[in-house]
Write a structure and sequence with these properties.
The structure is a single chain. This protein has 4 domains: 286 residues, TIM Barrel (Alpha-Beta Barrel); 29 residues, no CATH class; 63 residues; 115 residues, Alpha-isopropylmalate synthase LeuA, regulatory domain (Double Stranded RNA Binding Domain, 2-Layer Sandwich). Helix content is 39%, strand content 19%. α7 packs parallel to α8. The relative contact order is 0.10.
Length: 525
């Protein structure tokens, strides 16, 4: 692995843009996107490897789970700054400082709302009290680290004079990064650029700190606003893998990085991100959050480098640059290969996994290899996408309390359809049978008879991993219970088995989301 850390800086070089990834904090606040402790560590590791400058690892006060995740990420991260979020409250800041104390490079990110609507209705505080809280919170955070970031929540709807006052005080109190969040995705590029320029021009000491963008995508302009902010003088962009985040999401890391890399003529900047690792990061985040990437998603979507139109195909055959402004390889997309089959051994399988960017422990490797051999017995050709689906499925379900052991389904035109399922629940097997309006309905009802009624099915979606009638099916299931929404995924050559695995995966994730605290829900940057 190349040393991606050697080009990292403090963000004040003229053309150097710091990438601040908040997938593990803001991204995880997406309804249904909760990650296990192990999954958070895996995501943090790949972010560090690909050259992300700052990893916002979580919100330590939110829960013991968040605290432990931030703490372990701080201990394990080799190159990136590890950041913890805190409200402008002493207990939040102290908890963040405790979680980060073992980090090689630590940052505390503290925030408070500054817009009139937020101060009046959310905080129920007067502007002077908010201003005092800014000073107190940054001052307290400086007791733990000299790298402190301050954010005015709903900054783009904050009155300019008050925003300048708060930013100036945050800088005087010791903040080294000033982030301006477009919390509700309200601004437009020209307006956001002007806001950054105004702050840099008006606030004393602005030339001594790094200004940052944090844009949400409610109007579909998060990336455009972020890049406009950079043109206005910001030198840090806050973003997430696949653009996940609350509501319509955040600025997408892959889009920001590749826009800068591809359009150097109008964006004369550079990041330290190894773009060839983007696709692997995208797939990992999609897997652990169970959030499918839309086919036409820029950079990482399945169709991002696909050409179906005859005119486009003709142009591509003559010269790839007729319709491709970047190469698939530049973001880590590789052509499908057919070198694996039922005669492939463990060594060849291990080499293929390394080629695809996976490093598995012994137990996980053995489970993945067993499923690969089972698949090779069923399919004539095994594609890279098949192996990715197998490994991602194994990783997604590794820590599940409930697992699918066996499924038998009777279906046909005669009806009714019946399903018999055996589930392993905390080491004990339970079998149930149910009838339904179709085999999928019967399967889900059988699962419910084991786990109990409760979740409401919001989405059931199937797509083929590769072409052909022997392709693996990848199923997404979205469930809702008492206001919590989660998505589960499963893969198998049998669509009904994949469906059962996806439903059970979602049920396992519901258990994780029930522990979300009010403090966690309060983070709205």
């Amino acid at each position: 692995m190349s040393d991606v850390s050697e080009n990292r800086s403090d963000g004040r070089e003229a053309g150097r843009i710091l990438i601040f990834d908040t997938t593990l904090r803001d991204g995880e606040q997406s309804p249904g996107a909760s990650m296990t402790h192990t999954e958070k560590l895996e995501v943090a590791e790949i972010l560090d490897e690909m050259g992300v400058d700052i990893i916002e690892a979580g919100f330590p006060i939110a829960s013991n789970g968040d605290f432990e995740a931030v703490k372990e990420i701080a201990e394990r991260t080799k190159n990136a700054v590890v950041c913890g979020l805190s409200r402008a409250q002493p207990k939040d800041i102290d908890r963040a400082g405790e979680a980060l104390k073992s980090a090689k490079r630590a940052r505390i990110h503290t925030f408070i709302s500054t817009s009139p609507v937020h101060m009046k209705y959310k905080l129920q505080m007067e502007p002077d009290a908010v201003h005092e809280a800014v000073i107190a919170s940054v001052t307290r955070a400086r007791n733990y680290t000299d790298d402190v970031e301050w954010s005015p929540e709903d900054g783009t709807r904050t009155e300019h004079d008050f925003l300048c006052r708060c930013v100036e005080s945050a800088i005087k109190a010791g903040a080294t990064t000033i982030n301006i969040p477009d919390t509700v995705g309200y601004t437009v590029p020209e307006e956001y650029r002007a806001l950054i320029e105004m702050l840099i021009a008006r606030v004393p000491g602005a030339d001594q700190v790094t200004f940052s963008t944090h844009c949400h995508n409610d109007l579909g302009m998060a990336v455009a606003n972020s890049l406009a902010g950079v043109k206005g003088g910001a030198r840090q962009i806050e973003c997430t893998i696949n653009g996940i985040g609350e509501r319509a999401g955040n600025a997408a890391l892959e889009e920001v990085v590749m826009a800068i890399k591809t359009r150097g003529d109008v964006l004369p900047f550079a990041t330290g991100v190894d773009s060839a690792r983007i696709m692997r990061a995208s797939k990992l985040v999609s897997t652990v959050t169970s959030f499918p990437v839309q086919y036409n998603k820029a950079i990482v979507g399945k169709n991002a480098f696909a050409h179906e139109s005859g005119i486009h195909q003709d142009g591509m055959l003559k010269h790839t640059q007729t319709y491709e402004i970047m190469t698939p390889e530049s973001v880590g997309v590789v052509e499908s290969s057919l070198v694996m089959g039922k005669h492939s051994g463990r060594h060849a399988f291990a080499e293929k996994l390394r080629e695809l960017g996976y490093e598995l422990g012994d137990n996980a490797f053995q489970d993945a290899f067993r499923r690969f051999k089972d698949l090779a017995d069923k399919k004539k050709l095994v594609y890279d996408e098949d192996i990715v689906a197998i490994v991602d499925d194994e990783m997604a379900h590794a820590d599940d309390r409930i697992k699918v052991v066996a499924l038998t389904v009777i279906a046909g035109t005669g009806g009714p359809q019946k399903a018999t399922i055996t589930l392993d629940v905390d080491g004990h097997q339970h079998t149930a049978e149910a009838s339904g309006d179709g085999p999928v309905d019967a399967t889900f009802k059988a699962i419910k008879s084991v786990i109990g009624e409760g979740p409401k099915l919001l989405l059931y979606q199937v797509h083929a991993v590769t072409a052909g009638t022997d392709a693996q099916a990848e199923v997404s299931v979205r469930l809702e219970e008492e206001g919590s929404t989660v998505t589960g995924r499963g893969a198998d050559t049998d669509t009904l088995v994949a469906s059962a695995r996806a439903y059970v995966s979602a049920v396992n994730r519901l258990a994780l989301t029930r522990g979300r605290t009010k403090a966690q829900a309060a983070t709205g940057l």
